[in-house]
Every structure is written in C-alpha cells, then in structure tokens.
Amino acid sequence: MNPSAALAQGRDAFQERAWNAAYEALAVADRARPLDTDDLWRLAMSAHLTGREDAFLNALERAHHAHLAADAPVRAARCAFWLGFRLANRGETGPATGWFRRAARLLEGTDHDCAERGYLLLPTAYRHLGTGEYEAAYTLAADAAAIAERFREPDLRALAVLIQGIALLRQARVDDGLALLDEAMVAVATDELSPHVTGLIYCSVISACRAIYALRRAQEWTAALAEWCERQPDMVAYSGPCRVNRAEVMRLRGEWREALGEAQRACDGFSQAFQPQAVGAAFYQRGEAHRLLGEFAAAEEAYRQARRWGSEPQPGLALLRLAQGQKDAAAAAIRRVVGETADPLHRARLLPAHIEIMLAVDDVDAAREACRDLEQIAERYGSDVLRTMVAHARGAIDLAAGDAMAALVALRQAWQGWTDLEAPYEAARVRVLVATACRALGDEDTASLELEAARDAFEALGAAPDRARVDAMIRGESGDHPHGLTPRERQVLALVATGKTNRAIAAELFISEKTVARHVSNILGKLRLPSRSAATAWAYEHGLASPST
Q: What integer pLDDT is reported at residue 270 of this predicted model?
C-alpha cells in the first residue's frame, strides 16, 4: 500500500473508531516513513484499544521523544503522564513513578500554565485513595477539576470528578458520591471524552457502584458499557472488564450458563492484554457459576486460576469446601480472610459466607458477631442489597438459635428484598429457611409449599446440590445420611463422586459393569437426579463422597 494512502486510511479509520484498521494502516505508513507526533498518538491509542500493549507503550514513548526534539515540553509531559498512568494500572509502580517524575520535571522547566499540571495531580490523588486519605484525595481532585475548567479539558475534568466521587463514597457519603459519579458519566453519555478515557470512566464508575452495592446503577452502566463496546467490535481494552461485570450481573440473576460464557470470553479477551487482576476476576466469576451448578471440579480449577492471576478466591472457595462437606477447611479459610480484611465494604462481601459457614459448624456466637458487623456496614452505606443481606443472615441465625418466629420475620423481609433485586437463587435459599422455620412451628402445609417452590426455582436454575438437598427435605430425611440408599448404593455413589467410570467401579468392587449400571440407575431414581454430575454434587452436599462412608 502506498504510504500516503495508508496514512490517510489510518486517519479515517481512527476517526470512525475502526481501531484495528487504524492501527494496521498507520503501522504501514510508519514503517515507510516515521509518523509525526499527532499520528504517533493515533497509533498509540489504536494499539491500546486493540490490546497491543507493547506497541502502545512504544508509540507513546516515541511521541514523547519527538515532542522533546521539537522543543515541546508540555506535550512531551502529557505523553509521559499517560505512559505512567498505564504502567501504574498494570501494577508497575517503579517505572510509572519514573514517568510521572519526568513529566513533573518537564513542567518545572517552564512557567507555562497548562492542563498537564492538573493531570499530574491525579496520580497522587489515586495514591491517597489507596492509603485511606480520602479528604486529601478529594482536595487534589478538586484542584485538578478547577484546572480542567480553566483549560476546557473534558478528559481531565471527568477523571477528577470521578476521583472526588470515589473519595466521598469511601467516606460513606453515598448520595453525594453517586451524584459526582453521575456527573462524570454525563461527559461519557454526551461523547465529550476521548475513547480511552471513556473506557476508564465506565469501568471505574461500575466498579465503584459495585463496591458500595449500588447494584441497580452498576447494572445500568454495565448495559451502557456493553452497548458502547459493541459499537466498536475491534476494541479489546474495555470489552474484557465489561464482560466480567456482565458475568456478575448474570450470576446474580441466575443466568449461570450465560455467566460462564461471558466470563470465558473475558478471559480470552484479557489474554490479549496485560491485565492480570482482571483475568483473576474473570476466573473467579467462572468459579462461582460452576460452584452453584454443582460442577465442583471445574469450580476448584477456576478458583485456582483466579489465585494464580492475583485474585482472592474467597469466599467462593470456602463455600465450595462447605458444599463438599469439608466444614473445618471452610471455617479455617473464611476465618482467615475475614480476619485479615479491614475495609468495611470488602468485609461485607465476605460476611454472609462467614455467617453461613459458622452456622454450619455450630458456632452461633461467631455468626451473631459477624451479623452485627454486617448490620453496621449496612447502616453506614444504606444499600438495599446490604439490608437484604442482613435480614437473610439474621433470619438464619435466629433459626439456628431456636427462635423460629423471629426468624420468619427477618426471612420474609429477605425474600422480598432478593425478589425485588431479581436474585432468584438467593430468594430460593431463603424459602428453604422459611420452610425449616415453619416446620419448627408445626406448620407442615406452609413448609411443603415453600419447599416445592424452592425446588422448582433450583431446578430452573440448574442448582443441582440445592435441589437435591430440598428433595431430601421433602422426603422428610434427616441426619447426615439419606434414607432410601442401600449400603452398596452408597458405596457406588461415593465412587461415582470420585469421577470413576462404571468399568473402574466394577473392578474395584468385583462386580459386573451391568450391576454397576443398575446401581447408578437406582441411585439417580431414588434421589430424583438427572445425571452423574448431579449425583456427585449431591454426594458432596450430604457427606457421602468418601468411599469409606
């Protein structure tokens, strides 16, 4: 392709947000004759948005040096800022600090008042957010916003307002903080910002809303981000975070298979860019969906991958251990992670699982203490989700303590809350507790209705372990071992749960494959389960996964 034609094509593609075409054409032109600084910026941004990290950093560094050679220190400082900003987001603190310092030194050498001085306030403001100095972060961001107003710099203003909003949210000034996030999103909605800042604002606002359990807002902005990404199919940089957010929304709504697909696509997208923490978040969402479906081996592998990529696999991994009947391991893990987590909003993500596991190991006092902690957080941040979590936890604790009537009051509130939030799995779990409370009060008719409704919900969701547990309750079974299975069937079930084939089971028990097949068929029929994987989940749920059982 003719270099001049390639350059014109690259510029046109950039304007049309056809990022792959822009990058490829500009790269062709660059190989024929080095691009000027404006085109190097276009090359860098096209590389960034399509996940070409090395090419992005190289082009931006070249633009920086070209501005220096042209005696344009202010523009060189802006390139240095964005180099530092990207490296900081990748966790490369040392190189990032070096570029920020270089940008500052370039500005110190000139008395030129400029927007770049506002940009260089942002790294320190972000650092204050990380260290809990929220007032200092807010003040610096306000100074940056004032500079942005003076120089009519929408990118800088949006980033500064974003930091102000997050600083207020961290101080539990929720309404004021959300108002500032909404203000930042106005610039996104009216297409005032450059594409890379638009993506940053989207992801940051969604993350902030999720952190304070403003789920409806997070869902609304996630849908908007998805639409924005779909209009730019070449884009990699922000489609991955979008998919992780969508996977979490789908999981809450009970769309677990769809959530698995989104999380997998997020992992595939992130593998093209250097975003290890985001990869870990995607694997965690996969683990959660597999766990709820009763696919425990796949869940364990996903949690392992989440840890490998730097994400904490709790509370999901502890809940997996509980579902596998490993109560002590679950309790040790959840106690450890709650004990080392100080941030209240991070603790809120862990406390419901902590309460559930403490009740499973009969430590009602520890569960009550965790519930009080959760209540304080909910009171401070005023989220409907947090209040519903508190009601759910309080009802479970009252039930475990023998106060079924008090439990029902809280559980009815929790059921309504989860229903309003369109969270069918959590609503069904509450119905199981309601049924247990009704049975304790002698109301078998209501208990049966609640169990049947819960079973239908679990079946629709594909929640094999929960459905099996409800089936056992409907049959009136109690204790750790189910009624209806012969000792040999229990033995076969335990071996099925280890993943053995019929042939392997036959060899181990010295019986024919045909006999094993009959036992498996009887097991599935008696337990009303559709498959071996569902039987495996049921065996772990009921402590029958050990061949010695």
A: 60
